[in-house]
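Please check this today:
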Amino acid sequence: MNNYLLILKKELIDIFRDKRSFITLFIPVLLFPLMYFFMGTQLSGGNLTENIPCIVECETDSDRQLYEAIFNRTSLIEETAVSEDKYTDLKKGSVYGIVEISNGKITLVCNQNSAKTISSMNLINLHLAAFSQQIFNESLQQQGVDMSQLKALDYSGAMTDLSELIPDAGNSMMASIAPMMLVMVIMSGGVSVAVDLFAGEKEKGTFESLLTTQVSRMALLMAKFTAILVISLLSMVLSIAAYVISFKLNPGALGLYTGNPNADLSDIRIISVSQVLCVVAVCFTLSLFAVSVMTLLGINAKTVKEAQSQMSLITIIPTLLSGLTMFMDSASISDGAMLIPVFNTIASIKMIFLGTVQPIHIILSSVSCAVYSVIIWFICVKMLNSEKLLRG
């Protein structure tokens, strides 16, 4: 134990003495708030509810009269002149949409690549639908039709999101982005340290010297494993802190907007303490698994270049798995899928933020990652005790 503590202290001092490692740890704290600030600005402040800049094209005078009858009493549209070409202007974002009226037929053109354009044009579409219904109702009333008798079904066609009815319906923004960002930070947080502690010392010739001393190989392995784990956990804590800072600076960046184009801060679903604790639990066991894999690759690699090449998979695989969960219904994930390492953590975090998590899923995710970590640990011990390691 004394040797273990002595080596651990030495490794941690060397790690924090390196300015590059220290700066890398704090990158999420600096980067996440900035990233979510711009993201929140686009989501919460980029949608217009009036004076929407649009190009209006009316083929005939009667079409112009129709346009004025529909929109002149509102400030919904701000008619904008064409600068280059109407479609080019829309593509570049100079205008939010194009309103074309030809012989009484109204066509709305929007840019599907722009979220703020789509939401703004949806408002115009809703206004047109309401105006059309109003004309229809007035026409029926002029013919003496009883509207109360005509309306057989009391249905307005509008859908209500679950999050508007219950406070814990989930947070789709966090569920889409947070799992990928957290897992990538956890999986890559200790990579540079693992490379240096094993392959780096092999290249410098200090690793073989340590193995030939009276220090037990178990104490040496535990000390290096713990040092990498400390950095990985510190990366996780700083990443979660970065999310908290981001939310404080711009609540709209991490809030759930229910699809209502007029959504404001009242639509935000605050993340509860229990959700944060569940995220920490699954992330901790993922850190154990990630550090075990890093240790295994570090012991196996003979050079720094080889170790860096092998550990690149640690950052690539979580990115691919995150893409799978983005299109997966979290409520229908099977128990067996929660045994897949990395995927189970990403899926768990997504379910936690959406409020669809089941206790069995958290248990399966945490226990499976812990079991995989133990298995890899025994492989590392066996490799470290092999004389092949000394001979390279």
